[in-house]
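Listing S7. Sequence submitted for prediction.
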Amino acid sequence: MASVIGITLFREKTTVHKFTFDLPSEGGQAAMSIRSNRIAMMLKSGDISETVVVRGQNIPCTLRAAAMVYDAFSRNPFIFSKDEPEDWAPRWDQRMSSYERQFVPETWVSIHHNGRTLFSTNTSRQIDAIEALAQGGDVNEQIVRRVSQTLFGKDEEFVVQHDSQTAVVFTPFSSYHRAAILERRGGRTGSFAVSVHHPPKPKKPVRYDTFIHFCADLIEAVNVRMFLDRIKAMIEENRISGPPITPAQVQGAMTRRKELVAFANAFERANKVSYRPERPDLF
């Protein structure tokens, strides 16, 4: 059985500006810009230890990909060392909702192990190069600068910025799992914590990957509610802002919210769940 370890999801933004002296007009343009969420997972089962990095376009999909990796490793600790490489596409396909497929096509995830990209739904040579150099460790400005020199040439002048902010922290305890989740609400940052308590023995403890997936559903439910609230506000104020939104997308979001709330309610009925300070508003 895989050891249960803490997991932290970081929001990361990497920007590289290249200055070319013979083309001063292009000096301020970003040569590389990456926004993603990143988790470096330490997986252990007996004598087997693996470090796997999961990246994603948004927090829910990144958490679901991390849950997928943890589940696969817990069932087969040799999954990263077997001769035949694992086909992650069918596994990920099962976790994609019809709403994401139709209305959030920009959603992507990638999985990296020992610097190699094992799976990606949106190949990025910049991310591949960064993870090849980071080798499962933290990403910093020094790594980004070295990658920039490899991609764009050592003779170029660069200004590198790499910002990383904690977004979700999972902490396992002997009697429960806990997640601290930071939210962005209208430009402000809030937070809440959710815990799931293991049932008394001989019942089995709550699976770590199931809890991670539950938190992904919670976060997506909050995001979809905020999206629908913005639509409602635009209708009330008779204004339009941002990219065009179709009635089909609004209906799809309403259906997706119902699904997510049903998933959360089912998990709460099956397990002892507690929130601090309170359960987030899903409707």
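Caption to Listing S7: primary sequence and predicted structure tokens for the chain studied. The chain has a mean pLDDT of 90. The helical segments are 59-75, 88-95, 98-103, 125-134, 141-152, 208-237, 247-270.
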